[in-house]
């Protein structure tokens, strides 16, 4: 998993893989041309698809130039998207476009097509002059495929560069990560009965990180299996998304027998990287949306509707998150012995981290403040009842940051309507106090 996560973030992986396949395809098509006789070619292919060596070189040279031109335009389009993301949205959103499978595959197809035509040109130098070839036909088909991918890539770039589509992609990716990986992180809510006897500071053996970086992934199943094998219990001192420095304590363990605990094997199950990823880090997906919202409400851009769109998407993620019982850090092995304790955050933590910066920088924008109240209303309506008190308390935190002296009567009227509706939904109607 550590190798795959590192490889998945590399922009060059798929282009290199496609290039190797193109080399193999070039060799096989040339060998096919060499093995087939002229009668077999005429029997299996149309006569118009067979070319002589001179025409083949002209066709392949033209195709190589055309495909290289498409590669150049593709790189230019990618740079435009990266510049736009960095300047207007957030530098943290770059990896979403770079690691997108469509972007990597399109570039891989172009590079593979270019390499395919070049190597066929090299292989044709040893071909007899009076031989009819079928290889250029394969090259023409690959060029047509590259053209189709090029048209689709222009559509792909035009879609991704739109901020609403970017916000939607970030939301879907975070929800997908939550559905795919969050269940593996969650264990059981109840600690063992002998919890006080299991842990004493003098019994815990600390293990320090060998590198610095963000915790991107924890192989929970692997940690449980290894702890069961070593008859130990692991206490994580850091959580996914935390930054650890070399030599800092990353987890502790306690042995229950004389078996040797191989700390390096546990460290290999924890992936560190230079940046955060959304594989298990739900907070990172929320931060990306928060940063876009903050850029939108900045004085240089002043686009509150984009900020409200981000807030609505954050509300969607938090609504889904509220349905999980996330206070479940205890993981047991097959023998029902405690093997792993993770550091997990509460629902109130995610709510605070999602909105506190927006509240601070956009407290004077009534549209954004109303958007936060509306998002809290959405979470209260679709979420479980045990989170309603947290939502109501947080709404009071939001309204405390609003300078009511700057509000007109109509502003207070409509904002109070939102607050009254939220109070009824959360069951705190008696605690509701209108803004004055």
UniProtKB/TrEMBL annotation:
TM segment ranges: 12-30, 58-85, 106-125, 131-154
InterPro entries associated with the record: DUF2254_membrane
UniProt keyword annotations, A-Z: Membrane, Transmembrane, Transmembrane helix
Entries under Pfam families matching the protein: DUF2254 (PF10011)
Keyword Protein transport: no
Name of this chain's protein: DUF2254 domain-containing protein
Source organism of this protein record: Salinithrix halophila
